[in-house]
Amino acid sequence: MRIMFVGDSMTIGSAGDFTWRYRLWQHLNATFGGPYRIVGPRHTLHDPATDDASSAAYADPGFPDGARRHLAGWGEGWLHMAPLIGDAVRRHEADTLLVSLGLIDLGFYTNAEQTAENVRRFVAEAREAAPHVRAVLMPVIPNVRATADAAFGVQCTRFNELLAKAVADLSTPASPLLLASEPAGWETGRATYDGTHPSEWGEHLLAGAFADAMHQAWGVGGAYSAGTPAGAVTAG
Of 107, 128, 165, 214, whose CB has the highest number of CB atoms within 10 Å? Predict the structure, then answer.
């Protein structure tokens, strides 16, 4: 299994973060009995001091470079990733995509309908590169802007409806798509440090939502337990 994390600022993380990618790496090490590798063209964090993706300052310096791989970017959404995903899947031979996108699109670039079209383009490009690729897609989760801006909240709700429809329309036995559940217990006051980006607890909730989707549908790993220590199977 070759996993690629695809996402925006909540996935790349910022200097000093553990990231939910790290939490999922720990979980898979502890519960997945088969070989796997985390792949992708990028490996750094966003650096607030320079406003670019140049930081290697993960909260755990023991997080190995191979397991840090991803295709995520601060300020990038479905609009940005759809043109990149085919080449990334092809070059890194990814067969499992864990995707958390949409907030940036709706906030700055596209409406719900346009964003949903980019989801479909993303899936088509990934499948052209790897016809049997499978993916777990996260809906847009609660955030401070959706609470404060009613019109934006409506767009988030509408996009999540269209995302669910896209998953239902596009999933096939050969290339299955899963819609992850909104992380259980996601409350912005506890799960984020600024109303959007995950706190350490939020990292666990996001990792758990992806882990549980893969476990329940595909038998990958076990049920997620926050704070699960790393085990013997390595990803690097």
Answer: 214
Q: Is 61 exposed, middle or buried (0-12, 13-18, 19+ CB in 10 A)?
A: exposed
Q: Are 202 and 192 in contact (CB under 8 A)?
A: yes
- CB neighbours of residue 86 within 10 Å: 18
Residue 97, φ and ψ in degrees, nearest 5:
-110, 130
pLDDT at site 227: 52
Fold of 2-218: Rossmann fold (3.40.50)
Q: Which residue has the higher pLDDT, 236 or 168?
A: 168
**Listed residue (68, 63, 71) closest to 7, CA to CA:** 71
Cα gap 73→53, rounded to integer Å: 8
Confidence of residue 220 (pLDDT cuts 50, 70, 90): very high
User: What is the rounded (10 degree) CA torsion for 59, 64, 65, 67?
Assistant: -100
Instruction: Please answer whether residues 97 and 72 qualify as being in contact, where contact means their C-beta atoms are separated by less than 8 angstroms.
Output: no
pLDDT of residue 45: 98
Q: How far apart are the C-alpha atoms of 34 and 29, rounded to whole Å?
A: 9
Calpha distance 127→119 (Å, rounded): 12
Overall size of the chain counted in residues: 236
Sign for the pseudo-dihedral over CA of 37, 41, 159, 142: positive
